[in-house]
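Human: Here is a favour to ask of a fellow structure person. Comparing notes only helps if you start from a blank page. I am asking you to supply a protein in sequence and structure-token form. Write it directly below this note and I will take it from there.

Assistant:
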Amino acid sequence: MSTLILIPARIAATRLPGKPLADIAGRPMIVHVARRAEESGLGRVVVATDSAEIGAAVSRDGHEWIMTRSDHPSGSDRIFEALTLLDPQGNVDTVVNVQGDLPTIDPNTIRAALLPLAEPGVDIATLGVEIVRDVERTNPNVVKIVGSLLSPTRLRALYFTRATAPWGDGPLYHHVGLYAYRRAALERFVALGASPLETREKLEQLRALEAGMRIDAEIVDAVPLGVDTPEDLERARRLLS
């Protein structure tokens, strides 16, 4: 498969304005993410942004970027615009969406997101981590995957929720919002528009499930640090210093 890694990055952020350009160990956060995406070895890496300032920071470190519109409602819409601009001929088979606020992500974790696409029936692949801390089981900010266990490292997703689910004894799985799309699946996904459950749970991936698309999740060992708050940023600085 021909694979393109796209990293959506917008300059506006409610809780941490200018987040992609935040300095971590002497480099902007978005540069750390681009470096780790390239270290995955999956293919071409491009930052898709609405900011020339982000683009300049990426370019200075030798990475590729592309300007996209500023009015996209989601990162999925942004990466689809980038895909159509970068590959109008349709040569790319698979698109990996790596969030721009994961400066410490392990390149092996990025590679793992592609594994479920070895199954021809899978439209979208993503990642999960077994929850080990009790506090996360009831935390609505920790999105859970409800799914059928296909193997010790693979779930077929049936639902995603902020609630504590499924009920009863057994493991719960924390969803990691990194996706690998078949090209046709991404095109279909962005054309669907928001679904009722997506709107209710505020979880974009439910749109695909409501439309009958198949999402499988590869189970990995650890949740990558997502930088959403000043406290997260300080933690990333400590880890990468």
Q: What stands out?
A: The domain at 1-102+225-241 is CATH 3.90.550.10 (Spore Coat Polysaccharide Biosynthesis Protein SpsA; Chain A).
